[in-house]
Structure formats: C-alpha cells, structure tokens
C-alpha cells in the first residue's frame, strides 16, 4: 500500500516577520543593559584608579612628611617650565622604570635640566593606564599630547597666575601635608576627575574658553557667560576655544596649572576658562567626567566619593578669594571642600 508523503510545514511570511520583530525588541532591550553594565565596570575602574592614586600620595607623604608639590620647577632651570605631580609619584604607582628613564636624561649641568614634557621624546610618550579614566574619550590629535591625564589635584577655590598661594592642598612649589588640612582631611578634596578633551573643542566637557575677560581673578559667572544660551553644554560659537591638539588632559607631566590643576569655584562638570590665549593667566578649571550625574573625587583621607553636579556651588558672581589665607569659600559646599583652611563645617554631600 502506498501512503502519500506528508508535506513539511514551513514558516509563513507573517510568522517570520513576527519572529524578526520579537528579536529586534529583545536586542533593543538588551543593548542598553549591556551598555550600562560596561559603564558600571568602567566607573568602578575609574574609582579604583583614584583609590590607587590616593595610596600613592599617602606613601609619598609617609616618606617625605608632605604631599608632592602640585608642580615644581625643574626643566632647564626656568620657572616657566614645570614638572607636574604625576612625575613625583611615578615610583609609587609601579612606574619606577619610567621615573628612572626620565631622570637618566638629565645632564650633569644644572642649566640643561630635563627635557620638556611636551617633547616627543620616547620616554615622555607613555600613557599610564592608572592615570586615565576608562570612560574618558581620548584626543584624536596627539601632536602636543604625549601623556594623558584624567585626574588632577585641587588648588582650592582659586586658580591664579602663579599658583603659589592656593587655598587647597596643592599648588606650585607646594609643601603641604595632612597637618595643613585644618578643616580635616576627610573634608578636604585632594584630587578629582577632569575630562581629557577630544576633537569636540566647543563642548564644556574637555573644551576650554580662552581670553575670558573678568575683574581681578575673575568669577565663575565670567566663565558661565561664555556658554551658548541655546545649548549650555557648549560654548558660544563666537567664543575662542582651545585647539584640539592641546587638550587640558594632554600633558600629565607638564606642571603648568592648565594641565595638572582644578578648582572648586566652578561646579562639577561646569565650563573651564582662561584669561589668556595660552597656558597661563587666571582661570577656573572645572572637575568633569564622562559619568552620568557627577564626578569622582579623592578626599585627603584617601576616601573616594561621587559628587553630584547639583552640589551647592554658592554664588557664581562672588570674587575669588586672594592669596592662601583661610576663611569660608563663597562657592558653597563645593568651594568649602576644596579649601584646606576655610573653617567651614561640611555635612554629608
């Protein structure tokens, strides 16, 4: 007896389209979760980077009874060229070979000194993973950015031209330690994130407004005035800004304020401004990050905290205090956290 062969049943076009639609929905739901998981991992690594830098700072303090200078003279015996704080802690972040390689370039004559840290010498062009936040975007133009830096030391609530009289724990030729944190090490910021900068030079994250005119040392409001009214996350299209080949995080070992310092006058993730068109002058250098909602900061006691963009930043029209004298900061809780001797009482933040 011959039985008819059964016909195999396939998918109809409608069924196939339904399956594709379900898969697309699942992918749409899954991708954000994957991205969030990756950012959470990057954020944890960034936090750990700051923690390790805090350990390095305190190990240096144990040896020298003070934190390293924020910057110090040393290049070719001129005061206009300085080494930044990362140079001094290289042996404490497992970079002793690099530290020795840099020092080996010094000649016996004092006037020769070491090479400029923005030169293209091989021993300068080394990116140290522990100095770079994995969430940060990297500059595409590295012509004058040999060594990247996502973390900067705090000079308090003012950034003046010489940076030798600051209200924070660091500055030019600073010799400050835990004994100088009269507000308490747990209430004084040591370091914070600062976006390196990329090709988008008009973004307030990584961009820098130049030739900002203000009174005296300027006010945060002078800096806010450079923003685009239609998009406050960007500078005004007519505003002069820093070129992409010299971003603020492009020279970890260059001790000029522009590359190594930040202030707590400008709110976290606010704009960064300078009074000059070069690397000097007064300015407000903001702490910033690619994380959503705020920045990581390293306190003087070694604790790492996440500070919200919405932290109280006081009065933006207030004139920045001069010199290194004590006294309350006019820039709210954020300003108070940046000063070592402001006499303020800071609660949870």
Describe what you observe in this structure.
- The protein contains six helices and eleven strands.
- The protein has one domain.
- With 349 residues, it is an alpha+beta fold.
- The longest helix is centred in the N-terminal third of the chain and has 52 residues, at 13-64.
- It has helices spanning 13-64, 85-89, 96-103, 220-224, 257-260, 332-338, and strands spanning 71-73, 82-84, 151-154, 189-193, 227-228, 231-235, 261-262, 273-274, 283-284, 294-299, 304-308.
- Structural class determined from secondary elements: alpha+beta
Count of all domains: 1
Distance between the termini: 87 Å
**Helix count?**
6
The count of DSSP E runs of length 2 or more, i.e. the number of strands, is 11
Descriptors:
349 residues; 5-stranded mixed beta sheet; 6 helices; 11% strand
What is the compact description of this entry?
This protein is an alpha+beta fold.
Question: What does the secondary structure layout of this molecule look like, with pairings?
Answer:
Layout: H1 13-64, E1 71-73, E2 82-84, H2 85-89, H3 96-103, E3 151-154, E4 189-193, H4 220-224, E5 227-228, E6 231-235, H5 257-260, E7 261-262, E8 273-274, E9 283-284, E10 294-299, E11 304-308, H6 332-338
Parallel strand pairs: 3-7
Antiparallel strand pairs: 1-2, 3-4, 4-10, 5-6, 8-9, 10-11
